[in-house]
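Saturday, quiet lab. Running sequence design on the structure tokens for the scaffold JK sent over.
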């Protein structure tokens, strides 16, 4: 999965360049591959903390990062975790900010952990109506279930709500839409789903 999501990481990492600062956060870091990649990118005096709510994911990430001194992991809910105020100079997430039960609370909490002028750069699925893949997934599922299903997890639709809230704040937003043709992973899933629907 990590390998297949490398193309998403590449977009994410292209967006942040080589970040300046001493402390960085990876939200919903999962098995830690982006945390480790960021750890290798930043200066040797800088460190990266990955936070994830899943114990197996964090254990796996800790194992993978053994021997890497500037990376550590926190097992907790990023929505409610009591971060040290203004601790981080930037935060990233690869598909890890779509599952908050209360995105406003979660992003406010993350905001409190960031220094003034820091970045928050994340990748997430496009909203359902813009996501051709989501539509294909739902149609493929419908063929078997014969009744409409909801995609589990709040997904990007909730993020849209968050976007409108963030738009009213002092946060500077820059959204980029990456189309499926940029991703081998998505192309593979797409052709599989099209075969199922044929
Ligand atoms: C789609 S996975 C992405 C994992 C990782 N960022 C990657 O790209 O491989 C989403 C991750 O978000 C984590 N997650 C979901 N809700 C969370 C929360 N409230 N706080 C922290 N992590 C959360 C999940 O445990 C999962 O590891």
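Result came back. Writing it out in full:
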């Amino acid at each position: 999965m990590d390998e297949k999501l490398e193309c998403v990481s590449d977009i994410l990492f292209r967006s942040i360049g080589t970040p300046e600062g001493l402390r960085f956060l990876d939200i919903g870091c999962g098995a830690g591959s982006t945390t480790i990649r960021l750890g290798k990118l930043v200066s040797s005096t800088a460190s990266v903390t990955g936070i994830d709510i899943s114990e197996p994911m964090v254990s796996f990430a800790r194992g993978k990062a053994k021997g890497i001194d500037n990376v550590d992991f926190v097992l907790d809910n990023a929505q409610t975790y009591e971060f040290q105020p203004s601790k981080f100079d930037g935060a990233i997430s690869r598909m890890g900010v779509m599952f908050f039960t209360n995105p406003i609370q979660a992003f406010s909490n993350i905001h409190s952990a960031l220094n003034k002028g820091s970045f928050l750069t994340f990748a997430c699925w496009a909203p359902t109506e813009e996501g051709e893949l989501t539509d294909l997934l739902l149609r493929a599922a419908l063929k078997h279930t014969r009744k409409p299903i909801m995609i589990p997890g709040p997904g990007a639709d909730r993020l849209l709500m968050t976007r409108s809230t963030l738009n009213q704040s002092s946060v500077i937003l820059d959204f980029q839409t990456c189309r499926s043709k940029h991703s081998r992973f998505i192309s593979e899933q797409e052709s599989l789903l099209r075969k199922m629907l044929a």
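Notes for JK: Helices lie at 6-16, 33-41, 55-64, 103-112, 132-145, 155-167, 184-197. The chain has seven helices and five strands. Ask whether to fix the surface positions before the next round.
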